[in-house]
Amino acid sequence: MLKKIILGICALSVVLGAVTPIAEESIASPAAVAKPAPQTATEILQRIDDNRLSDGKIAVMSMTIHGRRGDRTISAKSWQRNIQDSFTEYLAPAREKGTKMLKLGDQLWTYAPDTDRTILISGHLLRQSVMGSDLSYEDMMEDPVLANNYNAAISGEEILNGRPAWVLELTAKKDDIAYAKRQLWVDRERFIALKENLYAKSGALLKTLDVNAVMQVDGRWLAKSMIYKDALKKDGDGTSVVIESLEFNDNLPETLFSKASLRK
Amino acid sequence: MPLFKLALRNLLGGGLRTWLNAFILSVSFVIIIGCQGLYKGMAQQMERLAIDSYYGGGQYWQANYDPFDTLTLDDAHGRLPDTLQKMSAAGQAVPVLKRQATLYAQNRVLNITLNGIKTEQTLIDIPTAKLRDTGHAIPAIIGDAMAKSAGLRQGDTAVLRWRNAHGTFDANEIYIAAIMNTHVGVIDQGQVWIELGTLQEITALPDAATLVITAKDSVPPHGVDTENWSFKDQDFLLTDERNMMASEYIEGGILYVVFLFLAMLGIFDTQILAIYHRVKEMGTMLALGITKNDLIWIFTLEGALHSVLAAGLAFIYGTPFLVWFGKVGFSMADMDQLGIAIGDTIYPVFTPGIIAGTAILIFALTALVSYLPCRRIAKLTPTDALRGKIA
């Protein structure tokens, strides 16, 4: 009898967990100015870009790589400006501490303190995974402004993680876009992509992004915790990324975004 | 001539010691010729396999292509000049397009080079006829080393991801139509071969190629070398193989030195003993009017004739042994793991140059080693020598 009760409680908790709304967190007081509701998919896309992109931000994040031999967590602090440029420093584990990464436009360098060498990541090196995760360096090189690169169409509406969402089909505007097609599940009120599927030109699903916690910073809703997965890998649970802290800052020092700062 | 006869008589008079020295030296003869033949055979086999499987009669490379820098592959493609197109149509050349890709196979993610080649080609030893489309996944050929590292077998499928010429990701399933048994690493490790037209289509690079392999017996046409395409002849393409063989020769040289050292030590020892034990004999000869130079000549010749005896012995037992070795060869079944383009068995090649070169080397060294102790004879005084004293 006791066993049945325990099983029943477990089953209930699983069911409740499945319908539990996405975790939320508010880091700063909302300051958003109410905007009119978007009428078209293009406007939705524009609102997504406006919501997530900023001129400058500082984030501390941790990345957990779920591999066959166990999990490995890496934490890093990242400074980002003008959408295109970023500077990242790994904080942990000890083996990776001090490794830095600088992205200026379409160029990417890494610096390893062990060897005291700065390496330009290009060509096939861009296809390598970042620290063994499901993210590749080339994923970091994509133009983050979706509205620049894609035509959008609303293909449906769904309730995802307890939130009403539009399903957006994005089709590349030009030939030189990395992913020919994307599918986005966009929170109808917060304009944040709760789920994203990235497709190859052939239609094969290449990568998936699932947001399982969101946070509000200065009135913007952003992903706090997400799982990134290379869909072509048959096994593996993907890579979890958690944003520990995030702050918008439009006055990041110019000197930070230079190759010289990699050795500092 | 009398000196030669005297030297030979003295040598044969040495009995067992002479024959023992000669035998040791003959073993060096046989081993050095055997090893030299083996290296020669290995070099020839490596070059032949590389030519038959990939280099052909030479290759035309697109200007941006650098086989040692995969970063160049994205830009290393271009349309074939008319002359090469005609050669290709006539079956005298095979265009190959190379692109980078990622292979998802058996839970492994591998960065590979995707090669496009015509199915109907017969110029190089890649079973491209197996690449004919079967209607479902893209047929592909891989080498056995690649199959082992990717955990793939014939009939397996794997997912291939690549970026087309515009940078857009694409992915599709490939079907392992054949696994080729090859020892040529350049077509095997990290290489996947698919039909040229398919690769051109999926990468949005119509009529493009990275390199063109010419037929072995073809003559490079004039006017093809432009700023976009340059001809690389066999000597250029085989540079790495030859450099590798040169280092192998050096390693082999250590073995020769050890064997020769042992043999020469025996002869040197014999000469020293001869000089100390036969002082009275030398004194008598000097008293009878033989000059010191003639005496040095006799003793040097005595020592040097060891090599002639050794050559005779080596000929008697070495010839059948080396003929048998040439037929059976030397098994190198595990060497493909080292990326060396040689077959399972190396068949040694004994050229007149190897035999003559080895003989001259041993004759010269034996003569030198025989001469060195004889220099003491120059200091000999006949009266002291007759009393058995040596300076």
Jot down its keywords.
heterodimer; A: 264 residues; mainly beta; 14-stranded mixed sheet; disordered N terminus; B: 391 residues; alpha+beta; two-stranded antiparallel ribbon; elongated
Describe it.
The complex is a heterodimer of chains A (264) and B (391). Chain A has one domain (37-263): outer membrane lipoprotein receptor (LolB), chain A. Residues 1-20 and 28-32 of chain A have low confidence and may be disordered. In chain A, a hairpin with a 7-residue loop joins strand 4 (85-92) and strand 5. Helix content of chain A is 14%, strand content 46%. Chain A is built from 4 helices and 14 strands. In chain A, strands 1, 2, 3, 4, 5, 6, 7, 8, 9, 10, 11, 12, 13 and 14 form a 14-stranded mixed beta sheet that branches. Chain A is mainly beta and 264 residues long. Chain A has helices spanning 2-19, 41-52, 137-140, 146-149, and strands at residues 23-26, 56-67, 70-81, 85-92, 100-104, 107-112, 117-121, 150-160, 163-172, 181-187, 193-199, 205-217, 220-230, 239-248. Chain A starts with a helix and ends in a 16-residue tail after the last strand. By secondary structure, chain B is an alpha+beta fold. Chain B has 2 domains: 2-51 and 240-386, no CATH class; 58-232, no CATH class. In chain B, 49% of the residues lie in helices and 19% in strands. Chain B is built from 11 helices and 13 strands. In chain B, strands 1, 3, 4, 5, 6, 7, 8, 10 and 11 form a 9-stranded mixed beta sheet that branches. A two-stranded antiparallel sheet of chain B has the order 2-9. In chain B, helix 7 (239-277) runs parallel beside helix 10 (352-374). Chain B is elongated and about 100 Å long. The chains are: A mainly beta (264), B alpha+beta (391). Chains A and B meet through loops of A and strand 3, strand 6 and strand 7 of B.
Which oligomeric state applies?
heterodimer
Order of helices and strands of chain B: HHEEHEEEHEEEHEEEHHHHEEHH
Strand content of chain A: over 45%
- What number of structural domains do the residues of chain A give? 1
For the record, give the distance between the C-alpha atoms at the N and C termini of chain A, rounded to a whole number.
Answer: 65 Å
Query: How much is the average pLDDT of chain A?
Result: 82
The structural class of chain A is mainly beta
Uncertain regions of chain A: pLDDT < 50 for 5+ in a row? 1-20, 28-32
**What is the count of helical runs of chain B?**
11
